[in-house]
Amino acid sequence: MNYKLSIDEKKLKKLLEPSESEISKVSKDEGVNKEEIEKTKTVEDSVEGKKELDYYLKELNAYNGKTIDQIARDKYQPEKQPLDTTTDDELYKQAKEYADSYKAEKQTKLQNTAEQNANKLQEASQKLIKESSEIENAIQNKYDKEVLDSKHSAIKNGISISSIIENLLSEHKAEKNEQSKANYEATKTELDKINQNIKKIEDDLGVALKNLDMETAVRLNDELSSLKNARDKANLSANRYNAMIEERIQQYKKELLNSDEGKAILDYIQRGKGELFANAKMALTKYIDGLPVDKAIEELEKEEYLRLFGSDTVNDLKNYLERKKDNTK
Length: 329
Prior knowledge:
Layout: H1 9-16, H2 20-23, H3 28-63, H4 68-76, H5 88-157, H6 163-257, H7 260-270, H8 274-289, H9 293-299, H10 303-327
Helix pairs in contact: 1-8, 3-8, 4-6, 5-6, 8-10, 9-10
């Protein structure tokens, strides 16, 4: 649909002012008949007016505020590669999070392994103590039995008070003490070995954790360098690519300026909104004037009208509608 790109400003001003028919009083019967006729006509006019207005709104949105440079850039801008604007501080934070995560995971593994090994040794220690206790009980039971058997034998042979039985009991006692001492020393030797192994696990863990601190610092530095290199490499590539796109933009801009399309756009820019704006303003006025007053006032609240036509035009139409509303009361 092609609408004329010319306008009579006098007609526009006339449309913005209340007509004589709106000011004059009419009879009730005449008003009812006229109201029905106008209502039908308003619906027909407003539909056609909206089509015309939509056309000009589309044209205004397409060209409003455009420049040759913007049009040229719009063609290639989506193809440009964005730069990575991550700062060194932000990269350090990322690297530290990675290093801290690695340290926490490695530290947990080291501590769990040490704890598991120490627990195994503790279990061996408890088992050794239990076995030693059982051996001691066996030694004691053997001693008690030997003492009892010796006393019964002495009584049976009538020598219970003689030095012979006393010497025999002393021998049993000495044997028991020797066996108990041997059990104690053997147990102590094994427990000392276990305790030394537990201490070694604790010492090794301490050394491993200190080494982990150093390893974490190295990983932090390596990760930070890797992140910086990746960012800088990506930005170098993007800058080279974008420079190539910029050359294309400038070349397209030259071609556009030499084309009929470019000349037409440049002419539009030089003339401002020109006839296009004037016709769009006329279409808006006709459309608004064809709507019921309250609906028209509500329609003018749309942000698009203020953006495309400016506050002066919108306010003029609002004032016209207010006068129109007062005259119909």
